[in-house]
Amino acid sequence: MASAPSARPVDAVVELSGVSVDVEGAPVLRDLDLTVRRGETLGVRGANGSGKSTLLSVVATLRPVRTGTGSVLGKSFGDSAIHDVRPRIALVGHAAALYQNLTLRENLRFLAHLTGRPDRAADDALDAVGLAGVADRTASRCSQGMLRRADLARVLLSEPELLLLDEVHSGLDAASVGLVAGLIDGVRRRGGASMVVSHDQQRLTAETDRVVEIVRGAAVPERCA
Ligand SMILES: Nc1ncnc2c1ncn2[C@@H]1O[C@H](COP(=O)(O)OP(=O)(O)OP(=O)(O)O)[C@@H](O)[C@H]1O
Question: Among 24, 62, 78, 176, which one is least packed by beta carbons within 10 Å?
Answer without folding.
Answer: 24
